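Below is a filled-in request sheet from our internal design queue. Each sheet records the structural input a requester submitted and the sequence that came back. We keep these sheets so that new team members can see what a complete request looks like end to end.

REQUESTER: design group, bay 2
PRIORITY: normal
MODE: inverse folding
CHAIN LENGTH: 417
BACKBONE (tokenized):
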């Protein structure tokens, strides 16, 4: 069976740095931090009182009030970015077979705010079971893909992947495989998350996973810095339209890049901690290169998982050095989570977009908030500290890893005719 080529023909983003792809990319290039004190609830009693929230979002700019009340925020975010990506790819304008367009989405948690609110309301009541009739449809993670398909009439494969912080990248890999196997022509993929809630912040605080740098939120996410103390929780969404190459070419679609491989592995080590030697990260990067026949020397940029945790950053760098050998010193490596925070199940989507835009513009976004070198890291590596760097980016790799030991990598390249 001849496998199809798969390309990117549309993008959508709603992030702590901006509410469109262009705003998001400008924020990345300019090294803007999206972190600030939490506004979604009173966080004064929490160990962490800041997050990377989406700014200036009003659901009534996108939905009528009745419709918005039927959706958790993570589904609203999904709908907004899917609309931007669908418009960008001209899927509505062009006469495409709707039976051949699918939606494969990712979310690590789903409707956390809805679940929290309904449980609190019940606990504060008189014991009578009064629940919102939309409680379950608002909460379940798969509903985001359902909403997107219902709005646009897309009748192809439709589901949501759940693998913690690797969820959106898992969705992209599944979408890529469905298209290259000939099971769809176009798939709307990506991920969304809205976990900046009392339960979300409190839960991650209990795990001691979050930075507690309340006196300086904008510098709290500092991957690879000696004084990093945990990740910064983010929210938002990213959408990527994947399309079979000949199908895209036939309709004259704009092509951003080609996706040439996607791989997955497991640490098989610990529920929250990465393997200390980066064994799973090594395996997934080795496999993503091998599956596409890409030599390590062909990769120009790695958008790393890089969450700003003491163990995670070190293990990923160890894996990169194992996979790339001496070429590791020729790479640009950066963690855009230094600016966006960690969007959990949506992280892979917006970081894939950052990788695609790096290819488009030959600019590598920075790892901001570097103040003190970590003596445990190899100082010869180019971690793109504090300022974006211009270089030709023909091939970009994007890593996302999740609790449970889930590892995912996707590989993008400039389109070759």
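RETURNED SEQUENCE:
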């Amino acid at each position: 069976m001849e496998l199809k080529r798969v390309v990117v023909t549309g993008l959508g983003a709603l992030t702590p740095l901006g509410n469109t792809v262009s705003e998001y990319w400008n924020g990345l290039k300019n090294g803007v931090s999206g972190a600030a004190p939490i506004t979604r609830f009173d966080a004064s009693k929490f160990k962490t009182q800041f997050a990377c929230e989406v700014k200036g979002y009003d659901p009534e700019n996108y939905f009528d009030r009745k419709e918005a009340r039927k959706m958790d925020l993570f589904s609203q975010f999904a709908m907004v970015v899917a609309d931007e990506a669908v418009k960008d790819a001209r899927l509505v304008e062009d006469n495409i077979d709707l039976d051949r367009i699918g939606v494969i989405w990712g979310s690590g948690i789903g409707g956390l705010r809805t679940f929290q609110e309904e449980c609190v309301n019940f606990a504060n009541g008189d014991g009578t079971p009064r629940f919102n009739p939309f409680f379950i449809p608002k909460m379940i993670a798969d509903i985001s893909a359902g909403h997107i398909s219902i709005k646009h009439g897309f009748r192809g494969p439709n589901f949501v992947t759940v693998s913690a912080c690797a969820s959106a990248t898992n969705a992209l890999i599944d979408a890529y495989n469905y298209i290259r196997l000939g099971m769809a022509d176009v798939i709307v993929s990506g991920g969304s998350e809205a976990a900046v809630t009392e339960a979300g912040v409190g839960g991650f605080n209990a795990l001691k996973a979050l930075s507690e740098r309340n006196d300086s939120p904008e510098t709290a996410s500092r991957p690879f810095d000696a004084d990093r103390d945990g990740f910064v929780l983010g929210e938002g969404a990213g959408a990527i339209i994947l399309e079979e190459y000949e199908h895209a070419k036939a309709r004259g679609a704009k092509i951003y890049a080609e996706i040439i491989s996607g791989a997955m592995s497991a640490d098989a080590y610990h529920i929250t901690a990465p393997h200390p030697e980066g064994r799973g990260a090594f395996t997934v990067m080795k496999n993503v290169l091998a599956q596409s026949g890409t030599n390590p020397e062909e990769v120009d940029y790695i958008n790393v998982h890089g969450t700003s945790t003491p163990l995670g950053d070190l293990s990923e760098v160890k894996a990169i050095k194992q996979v790339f050998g001496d070429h590791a010193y020729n790479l640009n490596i950066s963690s855009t989570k230094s600016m966006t925070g960690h969007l959990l199940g949506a992280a892979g989507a917006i970081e894939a977009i950052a990788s695609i835009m790096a290819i488009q513009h030959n600019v590598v976004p920075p790892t901001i908030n570097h103040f003190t070198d970590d003596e445990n890291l190899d100082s010869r590596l180019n971690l793109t500290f504090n300022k974006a760097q211009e270089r030709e980016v023909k091939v970009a790799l994007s890593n996302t890893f999740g609790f449970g030991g889930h590892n995912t990598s996707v590989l993008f390249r400039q389109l070759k005719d």
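SHEET NOTES:
- The CA atoms of residues 55 and 201 lie 18 Å apart.
- The chain has a mean pLDDT of 97.
FILED BY: M.R.
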